[in-house]
Amino acid sequence: MIRVLILNAVGLTAVSTLLAHYWSEERTLSAIAHRSVLRSERTFATALDLAGRVYVEISRSSDPPFIPIRAVDILGATPVSILRRGGCCSGMTRLYITALATLGIRAAQVTLYHANGEGRHALAEVSMGKQRVVVDPTYGFYYVNLHGEPIGLDELRQGVKPEYRRLPHSQHRRPRGDRTDETYPANDYYNFDFSRTKTANWTKTWIRRSVYRILCVLTAGRIDTLRQPLWMEWPQIVVAAVVAMGVLMCDLAMLYWGHCPRAIESRVGS
User: Fold this and answer.
1) Which of 21, 29, 178, 213 has a CA positioned 20 to 30 A from the CA of residue 39?
2) CA dihedral in degrees (48, 108, 63, 32; nearest 10)?
């Protein structure tokens, strides 16, 4: 009984600490987003303005890990740590998506796949009512079709070839290397097959590849277009949920094994 109480106390402390850290970061991110972005009646204009600021102001580096253990690298970095220390494409996209949420704008992460089938680049799909647009805050542009109309994940998967339009403020950060303001670098790494675009990178590790095969069967292939919920962009919430679930499972196991001996004794006694 004492062990159960200690386990629950430790679990409650861990969950409370993680959630307090999340709330602190969310308030910080909200204050910065509301102070920095030029608000517009048009969701599209506000979303592009924020993406342009992320592109110009956030440095490029590897994502700072939330928990410095290689086995849990899948968690990624917290949005505010990316804001302060920089990040790669997945981190930049996470920062952008969570900052958009503080402005009341929905977005979700998508992953571009190379022609060889490997996941290569993370960016965001922003929802504007019934319309969606893919935005790349790492390279400073958003996606349109041949007519200049914004396109989203569904259009990419249907084979629409994207063109790129510069984000607001992008003139303040000149492209490096062999690319222009409205292109990816001209090398094989960026040889994307846009029709393979999905809502996650399922090729990064063997665990992801295995999970993907299972989810493909369970969802009849819909996993490729299933938008990731916002809470999964916050490592603190993910870890808190895992800890809470672990404590609950232990409690149920202890309850079950504690009940079994009494049940056996009652049968023997009768």
Assistant:
1) 21
2) 50
CATH number at 130 reads 3.10.620
Please tell me the distance from the alpha carbon of residue 139 to that of residue 149, in angstroms, as a whole number.
19
* Domain with 189 in it: 37-230
Q: How many domains does the chain have?
A: 1
What is the DSSP-derived secondary structure letter of residue 150?
B
**183 in a structural domain:** yes
* Position 78 in a domain: yes
CA distances from 113 to 49, 61, 118, 139, 227 (A): 26, 21, 5, 16, 16
- Rounded to whole angstroms, how far apart are CA atoms 48 and 54? 10
Q: Is residue 253 part of a domain?
A: no
Query: Which amino acid is located at 30 in the chain?
Result: S
Position 76 in a domain: yes
Nearest alpha carbon to residue 235 among 85, 8, 26, 84: 26
pLDDT in tens, the chain (270 residues): 677 788 788 888 999 999 999 999 999 999 999 988 876 667 899 999 999 999 999 999 888 888 887 767 788 899 999 999 999 999 999 999 999 999 999 999 999 999 999 999 999 999 988 889 999 999 999 999 999 999 999 999 999 999 999 999 999 888 877 787 788 998 999 999 999 999 999 998 888 899 999 999 999 989 999 999 999 999 999 999 999 999 888 878 877 776 555 554 555 455
